[in-house]
Prior knowledge:
Elements: E1 18-24, H1 31-44, E2 48-52, H2 62-72, E3 77-80, H3 94-105, E4 113-117, H4 118-121, H5 125-134, E5 147-154, H6 162-171, E6 175-183, H7 187-199, E7 204-209, H8 214-218, E8 227-231, H9 245-251, E9 262-268, H10 276-287, E10 291-297, H11 302-314, E11 320-325, H12 330-339, E12 343-344, H13 346-351, E13 356-359, E14 365-368, H14 371-382, H15 389-394, H16 405-413, E15 416-420, H17 424-436, E16 439-443, H18 447-457, E17 469-473, E18 485-488, E19 516-519, H19 528-535, E20 539-541, H20 543-559, H21 565-577
Parallel strand pairs: 1-2, 1-8, 2-3, 3-4, 4-5, 5-6, 6-7, 9-10, 9-11, 12-14, 15-16, 15-18, 16-17, 18-19, 19-20
Antiparallel strand pairs: 11-13, 13-14
NADP nicotinamide-adenine-dinucleotide phosphate is lined by residues 327, 371, 421-426, 444-446, 449, 489-492, 494, 498-499, 520-522, 543, 546-547, 550.
Amino acid sequence: MPLVNAASVPTASASRTQIVVAIPVESADEVDSALAMAAAEIAAGATLVEWRVDSLAEEADGLASVLRLVRECKAPCVVTIRGVAEGGAFRGNEMDRVSLLEAIGTADPAPRFIDFELASLGCSANIRQKILLAVAHPPQPAAKKPQLILSSHDFQGRPSDLTRRAVAMWNDPACAVAKLAWRARSVRDCVEAFELLHQAPKPTIALCMGPFGMASRVLAAKFGAFLTYARAEGDPGTAPGQPTVAQLRKLFRFDSISRTTQVFGIVGWPLDQSLSPLIHNAGFGAIGFDGCYVPFPIPTEWEHFKAGMHALREFRQLDVRGLSVTIPHKEHAVRFIRECGGELDAISDWCGAANTILFRPDGSLKALNTDAPAAVASLAVALALHGDTSASLACGQDPHTVPGGNEMRSAWRNIHVAILGAGGAARAIAAGLALAGARVTLFNRTHARAEAIAHSLHGRALPGGGEAQVTASRMDQFSGETFQAIVHATSVGMEGGSDPEGCMLPPDVALHQKMVVLDTVYRPLQTPLLRMAAEQGATVVDGSDMFIRQAHMQFELFTGHAAPAGLFRRLVDGSLRVR
Ligand code: NAP
């Protein structure tokens, strides 16, 4: 049974997805500033303006103000007077709202679109009749009257009758554009929005609101959505989770997204502070790669991770090719790959944590860890060791099989590294250093966790011969004389962490001047630990070096091309040093 009455509907638009900036105008006093705001957003790239006039429409002379907004707007516009039932602020009588829309729709000039709700249109024959007087019916793009955007909103979650609503809109001969917006509860909602767009027989908008919805707003362009909503700079917007026009166009390169665009992203929780979308998208632009990198927030529990990953994997038209994995899902990534029968590189297999997942064209998955080789490479440069273990480790290869591998292994044999911490990052770095041939001693607040890592790594056979040397020691036995390098891998000293002013080493600890101290924390760049180490003459390396190196490796795994190194450094510096 077909979902829609094919004879009654125009086909889905093949033209580009428009960016509409939604501007709320509450009173006549705001009309001038709203017009100025719209002009700025049109200059920034918005192609449509939505005037949200819920409160303005209730004013005594509200109609005249709305008509002025339509008349003086520098781009085609949508007029929306949203009632309280669907998240708006219009509290007046329903027939008054409909009469206002009729007056707006029959004015000259009229807006390009009027938005009206599916639920309200079906309320009475009278309402439907008046709305049909306000719009071009059936829809004709060249008509003087507006086209009807027939809409449905749910600010709580996915409506249980989502598909029924979509079909009702698609089948309504008055509907020029179908709009479905709901508050996403997980990444799966975004995938469902894409599925709706994929099967839409007429111009359609399917968007997810809230923190889980950004991918649906950005990748609307990949699925040929009629439009996506943005908020004006400095304005809170008209729905939760709207990006600005500038974010869509500059951060996500919205104009370059098409049906062929490959999808990449980051999974983690929370993701607000992540620099990865900024650098990967800019990198794609710099090398002319047809990709888009978006945030896929997934809450902490394994069940959420598993469900989110299956959703991303199973809707093949989404064309996900690669994901960065961050806190708290690095261990979940390895578990997921094992459950799916995918492949693990040597480090993620050794340490049980991965920060990169590749979705290969044949449907298979591979997980890798680029954190560890990045930290190893950062230390190698600071310690002036020769060779390049980073590339070989990133690819899970035996360092002996690549140029510089043997030389590097013997150089690392003389290096004893203290790792402060025993979380996911510490575990990966310990495995990477042990694989490179270094001796490692872990120190952690909870000693048992350090011991567990040492127990799982110590004595494992190294690919080129010999055994991994990993031990654990108590914090009060730390001596700065023993080590050539210290790697700090806890959240102490991290902005927003539990102890941002803290330092894992006591103030009286003596460090020697040939020592390298690497802090994995990069917010802020200068941590209390690095300040203390620098004062004692040690060579210090901040966390941005490791971050950029791991991003380079991911970029190369994602695109097959070397990352634009200078660009990544500039973007990271710009974001972190400005603060
Ligand atoms: P995690 O798994 O949550 O581990 C947290 C670690 O911090 C544990 O060792 C924990 O000790 C310790 N810790 C937390 N609060 C502490 C406190 N108040 N006092 C003493 N120890 C404390 O986190 P993770 O994934 O390993 O990340 C650790 C750090 O690495 C973060 O700062 C992260 O930003 C950084 N990192 C940087 C990069 C990069 O590219 N630069 C990449 C990955 C990670 P207990 O075991 O006692 O709880």
